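Students often ask why we bother encoding 3D structure as a string. The short answer is that it lets us treat folding as translation between two languages. Here is a chain of 79 residues written in the first language.
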Amino acid sequence: MDNLLPEVQDIFRDVLDQPNLVLTRESSTYTVEDWDSFAHLNIILAIENRFKIKFALGELQDLKNVGDLLDLTQSKLAK
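And here it is in the second language, the structure alphabet:
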């Protein structure tokens, strides 16, 4: 499951323009500089495009951290 982390980290680095950003499953909007609501939308869109998946709005509302995002992405890929 965490094999998605490097790809998702690359997306975050690109969207947030932070080439040295290191994410963990616990990373959140509180710990990642510039991860605001606008950046979040761009991150979600980039993940959907990269993995050819679609998130429902209700699925995104409960995300608390990168780990939750990875888990949700993995569940979409498994379908």
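Translate back mentally: Residues 37-51 form the longest helix (15 residues). Keep this in mind for the problem set.
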